[in-house]
Amino acid sequence: MQLTDPQRLDWLRLIRTEGIGPRSFRSLINRFGGAAAALEALPDLSRRQGRRIEPFSRAQAEDEIAALARLGGRLLATGEATYPRLLQLTDAAPPLIALRGAPQILNRPSVALVGSRNASTAGLAFTERLARGLGEAGLVVVSGLARGIDARAHKATLQTGTIAVMAGGQDRIYPASHVGLVDAILGEGGAVLAEMPMGWEARGRDFPRRNRIISGLAYGTIVVEAARQSGSLITARYALEQNREVFAVPGSPLDPRAEGTNDLIRQGATLVADVDHVLDVIGPIIERGPDPDAAPARQRPDLAEQPDFWDEIDLEGRASLLNGGADPDLVFDAPVVEPDEPMDDRQKIIALLGPSPVGTDELARSAGVGARVVQTVLLELELDGRIERHGSGAVSLVSR
């Protein structure tokens, strides 16, 4: 299938109409035979629902397509040859997704690699090693452009292939400090995807929405560091729903950043301590191809149910908009903002330390500071009894 320009415009108008999500979009298309007919039927649906459903205007849709084109992007539709095949197999695949970059990378074999924004130096170092190994094995690495694990995964695979999935619109990169990373991804033949409209500032509910795209693009999802109740575990939950593999990197039981990953392993996720642990599982799946209807062949982690984070209209008129239960720690309707003040060097170094020993050179590289600054901060922490020194100059935080 290849949409004509008028059809693509109608698809955009329909999916941008308030209250219509991926599932209800598909239902409307199936019921009325196309987006144009579905748009014409919306007034009648409005009367049955007892509420006004105002279609996204043609002018708004044309403006969005033009703005995306000015950035060098375009909209891909489900069913088109360039649309990611693995993502299309999922239940709630975006009918349209905005692409900047190389479309051919979207259908190469890929693995998702996600984890903590507040990552430890050890976690970042292992992420880089793992991502490089996956890239050298021919796999594209997918992640969410966040700080910490995501950013390190993207940077490590710029030359072998990486896909970034954004929570906001293509012109609203979050965090703003990753504008340069996006440019590097595009410059090296990677791709940047966004489901949300141009001009859309990422909100709390948009990150779980984005996560089901990250997992849907990949044969499996690897979680490197994740606290309990973290967004990375939501990505793992979506991977399970999509009948994809889940992997987890073990961590110290003394580090809260490893609680979620250790739980995943205990519940059946594949333990990853080397790139071969991923390749041994993913390789046979790539050879035979994904089967969304196949029963899982291995034990799967039993993750708690998470709500859906996109609005749907009820075509049978039995319910109002589905807003889903919300994590009280997430402000779903507020834009996500970055901290006003960046961390100082001491705060950066402390945040990167954990119970696992790390070398001072790696610590300096991860913090982006000089070796002398690291040694000064470590001396202060040692005098305060907060770190322990190990052989070969490695250090770790003392658990309290």
Automatic annotation (TrEMBL):
Residues 75-280 form the Smf/DprA SLOG domain. InterPro entries: DprA, DprA_WH, DrpA_SLOG, WH-like_DNA-bd_sf. Residues 338-391 form the DprA winged helix domain. Pfam families: DNA_processg_A, DprA_N, WHD_DprA. It comes from the Bacteria. Gene3D superfamilies: 3.40.50.450, Winged helix-like DNA-binding domain superfamily/Winged helix DNA-binding domain. Belongs to the DprA/Smf family. NCBIfam families: dprA. PANTHER family: PROTEIN SMF (PTHR43022:SF1). This is DNA-processing protein DprA.
